[in-house]
Every structure is written in structure tokens, then in C-alpha cells.
């Protein structure tokens, strides 16, 4: 994550402090105020004056004030704070600009894809008629939670999920994004199931699926005219777009 960071200028901090003495600049993660020891120039000047020999810590371990290079706004952090935040999240905590590929803590499982040509997902018109169904099966066995889960060391329950998409161009795109998210361990996590009021369960991790060919929006089924737009927005929050999927899942261009 270090190459995403740009040290904040001590001169800029001084100007902001003098202009707004009642609104000091802070790290937006730990919310501590910055002082002169948080700036790289301070330590460089100490080294020039031979004062660095008095230090018992390495300069690299100091909480240096930084900005993230791709953010448009004034988002300031301690380097250590933002490095710890970016390790799992991979995006700015304020504006969500991505920094690298986000990886999740999904339990170990298996993903199976089947094409069912003789069954269709329900639709209000005829857009899914005769196209068949993409059936995705996610299977997880019982296991022990790791350090990034809700209760490390405790057991979590097994889960099998059946997901249905129409075998259409849009359905194939979403299948491609599901594959990318699966490889990045982003689709599931271990936590509290709101629907069952139980902890230590494998739950969806921000991406909603269609678990029935029928029943409509209220029953996590089809038809649902706005589903593809919504789920693409959810994948985008995970840093995944159509650009990330393999070509075989993208619509064929007409020559």
C-alpha cells in the first residue's frame, strides 16, 4: 500500500493550522490531531542537524501524515492507520476510490455452475423465454473461524446456496462477476444472520443473489426488472466491473 501514499507537506499543515486554529487537521481514521512529528520534513531536518542519533525508533515507524494519491478531496491519515485500513478494504474510507484489489474472508468452499436448457427464469415479458437457466451452487462445510472472522476459534455452520440467472447476455455478465468475486473471497463472510437471529453463520457479504427462478423480488426470485443494475452496483462497491470478467462472459460484438 505504500505506493498509494503521498507524504503531507508540513508547510501546508502549518498554513491550515494558522488559518483555522479551531479546526485542526486530523487523521480521519484514529481522529488524532497532527503535530510536527507527523511530518517527514521534521525528521529530515533532525537528520541534517545530527539530532536523529537521539531517537530510539526508526523514522519509518513514525505515524507520518499522508494523503492517498488518487483521492480528489483532502483526506489525511497517519500512514500506519491507513495502511491497516487498506489491507482488507482496498479503498479510501471516505470516498471509496479503489486502491488495489479488495480481498475478503470468505470461508473455503466450492462453486459449481450448471446450464439447464429446459427451464427458464420467470419474466414479466418474454425476455427470458426459451433461454434456459444458469444454476450456480455454492457449498461450504462446517469449519473454524479465522482471525478475520466474527469470533476467531469458534465453529461456523455449513451452508449450501442455489443461485439462478437467466441464460442471457446480462446473466452471463453477472456469472462472470460472481466468478471474479468468488476468487477474491468476497461473496460470503461469517457473522450474524439477521433472518435467523444467529451468530457464527455463513452470510452474504453485500452482494444479493436470486435463489429462486420464480417468486419475484419479495422472495429473492425472478422476475425482477432492476436486478441486473442493482447487483452490478453491489459488485462495483467490491471493486468489480464488467471490465474484470473473462471475455467468454462478455456479450459478443457484432462484426
The average pLDDT score comes to 88
The total of beta strands comes to: 10
For the biggest β-sheet, the strand order reads: 1-2-3
- What kind of sheet is the major sheet? 3 strands, antiparallel
Overall shape: it is elongated
Cα-to-Cα separation, first versus last residue: 42 Å
Helix content: 10-25%
Order of helices and strands: EHHEEHEEEEEHEEH
Protein traits:
single chain, 255 residues, alpha+beta, three-stranded antiparallel β-sheet, elongated
In a nutshell, what does this entry contain?
This protein has 255 residues and is of the alpha+beta class. Helices cover 22% and strands 20% of the residues. The strands form 4 sheets. The chain has a 3-stranded antiparallel sheet. It has a 3-stranded antiparallel sheet with strand order 4-5-8, covered by helices on one side.
How would you describe this protein?
The chain is of the alpha+beta class and 255 residues long. 22% of the residues lie in helices and 20% in strands. It is built from 5 helices and 10 strands, in the order βααββαβββββαββα. The strands form 4 sheets. A 3-stranded antiparallel β-sheet has the order 1-2-3. It has a 3-stranded antiparallel β-sheet with strand order 4-5-8, with helices on one face. A hairpin with a 7-residue loop joins β2 (65-68) and β3. α4 runs parallel beside α5 (227-237). The radius of gyration is 24 Å and the shape is elongated. It starts with a strand and ends in an 18-residue tail after the last helix. The model has no long low-confidence stretch (mean pLDDT 88).
Amino acid at each position: 500500500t505504500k505506493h498509494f501514499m503521498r507524504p503531507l507537506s508540513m508547510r501546508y499543515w502549518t498554513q491550515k493550522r494558522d488559518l483555522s486554529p479551531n479546526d485542526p487537521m486530523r487523521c480521519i481514521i484514529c481522529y488524532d490531531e497532527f503535530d510536527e512529528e507527523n511530518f517527514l520534513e521534521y525528521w529530515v531536518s533532525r537528520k541534517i542537524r545530527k539530532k536523529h542519533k537521539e531517537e530510539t525508533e526508526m523514522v519509518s515507524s513514525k505515524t507520518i501524515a499522508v494523503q492517498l494519491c488518487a483521492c480528489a478531496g483532502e483526506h489525511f491519515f497517519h500512514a500506519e492507520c491507513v495502511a491497516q485500513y487498506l489491507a482488507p478494504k482496498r479503498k479510501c474510507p471516505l470516498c471509496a476510490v479503489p486502491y488495489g484489489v479488495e480481498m475478503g474472508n470468505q470461508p473455503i468452499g466450492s462453486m459449481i455452475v450448471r446450464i439447464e436448457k429446459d427451464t427458464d427464469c420467470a419474466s414479466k415479458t418474454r425476455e427470458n423465454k426459451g433461454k434456459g437457466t444458469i444454476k450456480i451452487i455454492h457449498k461450504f462445510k462446517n469449519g473454524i473461524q479465522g482471525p478475520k472472522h466474527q469470533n476467531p476459534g469458534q465453529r461456523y455452520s455449513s451452508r449450501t446456496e442455489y443461485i439462478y440467472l437467466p441464460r442471457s447476455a446480462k446473466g452471463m455478465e453477472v456469472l462472470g462477476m460472481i466468478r471474479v468475486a468468488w476468487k477474491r473471497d468476497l461473496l460470503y463472510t461469517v457473522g450474524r444472520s439477521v433472518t435467523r437471529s444467529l451468530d457464527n453463520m455463513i452470510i452474504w457479504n453485500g452482494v444479493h443473489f436470486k435463489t429462486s427462478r420464480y417468486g419475484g423480488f419479495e422472495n429473492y426470485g425472478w422476475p425482477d426488472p432492476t436486478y441486473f443494475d442493482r447487483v452490478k452496483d453491489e459488485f462495483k462497491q467490491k471493486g468489480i466491473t464488467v471490465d474484470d470478467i473473462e471475455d467468454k462472459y462478455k456479450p459478443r460484438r457484432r462484426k
